Amino acid sequence: MGQDEQPVAETADPRGERVVLLPSVWTGKMVRDHPEVAAHLTAVLHVVATPDHVTPDPQIAARTRYYGHGVGPSRWLLVVVSYEQDPARIVSAFANRKDPRSWSA
């Protein structure tokens, strides 16, 4: 985390690890690339803290995908957390209509 970049928000993941959301990620990437999440900051944090489904990221081992069902702007809200640094950082969030591949209701 840059010295002058204070988190927009923070939460804890299900294991109790601190997870932050930096302004450069929130406004510089997520809201720009996925404007549907702009009004759902609270839901993004909630999904990390109490996810309905969790999977490892298939591309980067130090990342985890947290899914919230029925929260946010669509059927699922997917939030990606990077554990490549301390504290962990939310690096992406977006709406998804499809169930995760490993999901079983």
What is the tally of beta strands? 6
First and last CA, distance:
37 Å
Fraction in helix:
10-25%
Give the overall shape.
globular
Tally of contiguous helical segments: 2
Largest sheet: 6 strands, mixed
Summed over residues and divided by their number, the pLDDT gives a mean of 90
Structural domain tally? 1
Reading the helices and strands in chain order gives EEHHEEEE
C-alpha Rg, in Å? 13 Å
Strand arrangement within the widest β-sheet reads 1-2-6-5-4-3
What does this structure look like?
It is built from 2 helices and 6 strands. It has helices at residues 23-33, 41-49, and strands at 9-12, 18-21, 53-56, 63-69, 76-82, 88-96. It has a 6-stranded mixed β-sheet. The longest helix is centred in the N-terminal third of the chain and has 11 residues, at 23-33.
Set down the secondary structure blueprint.
Elements: E1 9-12, E2 18-21, H1 23-33, H2 41-49, E3 53-56, E4 63-69, E5 76-82, E6 88-96
Parallel strand pairs: 2-6
Antiparallel strand pairs: 1-2, 3-4, 4-5, 5-6
What would you say about this model in short?
This protein is α+β, with helices and mostly antiparallel strands and 105 residues long.
Record keyword descriptors for this entry.
2 helices, alpha+beta, 6-stranded mixed sheet, 6 strands, 105 residues, single chain
